[in-house]
Design a protein that fits this description.
The chain has 329 residues and is α/β, with parallel strands linked by helices. Helices cover 41% and strands 15% of the residues. The protein is built from 16 helices and 12 strands. Strands 2-1-3-4 form a 4-stranded parallel β-sheet, with helices on both faces. Strands 6-5-7-8 form a 4-stranded parallel β-sheet. It has a 4-stranded parallel β-sheet with strand order 10-9-11-12, with helices on both faces. Strand 7, helix 10 and strand 8 form a beta-alpha-beta unit. Helix 2 runs parallel beside helix 15, helix 4 runs parallel beside helix 5 and helix 13 runs parallel beside helix 14. The two termini are 30 Å apart. The relative contact order is 0.17.
C-alpha cells in the first residue's frame, strides 16, 4: 500500500476550518485558479456535491482528457490522479491525500507483471484501470468495468491474453465471451467481502428488490444478481427502470448519487460478510476513498500541493494503453 506521510506548513487544520464555509471556499478557489474537482462515486456525499464532475473511472479519465482547466483535484484514489496526469501532463493534478491507495492496485506490482509477461511472451496484456502507472507501462491496453467486454471484443478470438489484476472481472469476461484469458489473482477488498447469504436474506425481506452487483464481486454474488455492471451502468439502470426498490452490492458511496437522481426509489446496501473491525455493519465502504475530505480538498487547492508527478519516460509508456482504451471505447 502506498504510504507517503505528508505535511505542509500553513495547512488549515480541523479546528481552524470550523470558521470556514469549506464548500464556498473550494468553489471560490476553483474559480480563481481555473481548477476543477473530479470526484469518484465512492467519495462521501459532501464531496460529490461540490465536485464539477462525478463519475466512475472511465468517465473521469475522459473528463481529465477533455478539460480546459489548468488544474484539477482528483478526489478518489492515487491511481486515478496518476491517470489524470498521464492524460494531461501539462496540467497541475492534485491528490487530496497521497495515502489514498487501492487494494486492487496493490495486488499487482510492476516488477511482478514484468516477470509474468516474460514467462508468457506471446500474450497480449490487458490491465484494469485500477493499477499504477508503472503497471500500465507494461500493459497493451487498459480497461474499466464499464468497457472491459467491448475492449476484449476488439481482440482476435484466438488471441492469448493476460488479464489483471482483478480476477473476478476477468472471470466474468471469460464467462460471457467464451475466452480463456490468463487471469491475475487480484481483487478489491471491498467487493470481495459481499455476502451471498445477506443478499438472499435481503431479497427474501424485499421480494420486489432488484439486486445490482459490481463486476468486481465474486462469481457467487454475480450469480444471484439481476443487474451486473459498473457503477455507471447500475446508476443508469436504476434511473431508467420502473422498479422502485434496489439491493446494491458495490461501495456504499454510490448510494448518494442513486438517491439524489432517484429520490422516489429505495436503495438497500448489501453489507459485508464481516467488516474490517470484525463487527457486522449495514454497508461496505472503501476506507481509501473516504480519506478524501472537504478540508483536504481546500488545502490542496489553496497550496497547490500535493501534486502528482510521473517520470516522463514512464509516462510515455503508461499513457499508450489508456489512449488505446479511449480510442476503442
Amino acid at each position: 500500500m502506498l504510504k507517503k506521510k505528508w505535511m505542509k506548513q500553513g495547512f488549515i487544520d480541523e479546528a481552524a476550518a470550523e470558521d470556514l464555509d469549506l464548500k464556498a471556499e473550494i468553489r471560490k478557489l476553483c474559480k480563481e485558479k481555473n481548477a476543477i474537482v473530479l470526484a469518484h462515486y465512492y467519495t462521501t456525499g459532501d464531496i460529490q456535491d461540490i465536485a464539477d464532475f462525478v463519475g466512475d473511472s472511465l468517465a473521469l479519465a475522459r473528463k481529465a482528457a477533455e478539460t480546459d482547466a489548468k488544474m484539477m483535484v482528483m478526489a478518489g484514489v492515487h491511481f486515478m490522479a496518476e491517470t489524470c496526469k498521464l492524460l494531461s501532463p501539462e496540467k497541475i493534478v492534485l491528490c487530496p491525500d497521497l495515502n489514498a491507495g487501492c487494494s486492487l492496485a496493490d495486488s499487482c506490482k510492476a516488477e511482478d507483471l514484468k516477470k509474468f509477461k516474460e514467462e508468457h511472451p506471446d500474450h497480449f496484456v490487458v490491465s484494469y484501470v485500477n493499477t499504477t502507472a508503472a503497471v500500465k507501462a507494461h500493459t497493451d491496453v487498459v480497461v474499466t468495468s464499464g468497457n472491459a467486454k467491448r475492449i476484449i471484443d476488439h481482440l482476435p478470438e484466438d488471441a492469448k491474453v493476460i488479464f489483471g489484476p482483478d480476477y473476478n472481472l476477468g472471470n466474468y469476461i471469460n464467462s460471457v465471451t467464451g475466452r480463456k484469458m490468463l487471469l491475475w489473482n487480484g481483487g478489491c477488498h471491498v467487493h470481495e467481502r459481499f455476502s451471498v447469504e445477506k443478499i438472499i436474506e435481503l431479497k427474501r425481506e424485499n421480494p420486489d428488490g432488484i439486486v445490482m452487483a459490481h463486476l468486481e464481486c465474486k462469481a457467487p454474488v454475480l450469480a444471484v444478481a439481476d443487474v451486473k455492471g459498473s457503477t455507471a451502468n447500475m446508476l443508469k439502470y436504476a434511473q431508467e427502470s420502473n422498479a422502485t426498490q434496489f439491493i446494491v452490492a458495490t461501495e456504499a458511496g454510490i448510494l448518494h448519487e442513486l438517491q439524489r437522481t432517484c429520490p422516489d426509489k429505495t436503495f438497500i446496501p448489501v453489507p459485508p460478510e464481516i467488516s474490517e473491525s470484525g463487527l457486522e455493519c449495514s454497508c461496505n465502504e472503501c476506507q481509501y476513498m473516504k480519506m478524501n475530505t472537504l478540508l483536504k480538498i481546500y488545502n490542496c487547492l489553496k497550496y497547490e500541493w500535493p501534486s502528482v508527478e510521473i517520470d516522463p519516460e514512464l509516462a510515455e509508456k503508461a499513457v499508450k494503453p489508456i489512449k488505446l482504451m479511449l480510442e476503442w471505447s
